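Protein in question quoted in full.
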Amino acid sequence: ALHLGSRAIHDYHAENRVMTIADVFIHSSNIGVARLGLMAGPQTLERYYKNLGLLEPAEVELAESARPIVPRRWDDNAVTSSTFGHAVSITPLMMAQAMNAVFNGGEAGATGPRTADGRCRGQTASGVRRYQADHLGDWRHRLRESKPAHLSAQR
């Protein structure tokens, strides 16, 4: 377990070994992602969430577009909890827009929700730049690498 004050973070599928970053994702290690979050720090993690568009409502022409629920203060508890899906609450549309940017070379909006004029809110002719494409290549590789072999279509 990883202890933060009186709180303990556990892995439900414990491997009881040192894990690579790919292993952390393959085995969905709460402890592993919590440690990565602590290493990155609150400012970096908050900046990543902001760059992915996860700290604002989804860019869609709906009055009902919900604001995400995020921590008021990014302390160690908020940082670690957010790394494994707690402490931040977003809509499925927000997640789709974030992944759209990851898998489209850093640009959101290329295939995202459209306004009446056919563009995403804030979109330039090519899309909303969320990340530099060269920064994403490594993460796309890590996401592909983290796919467990028994789930792969290739044998």
In short: The CA atoms of residues 104 and 110 lie 7 Å apart. The first helix runs from residue 21 to 26.
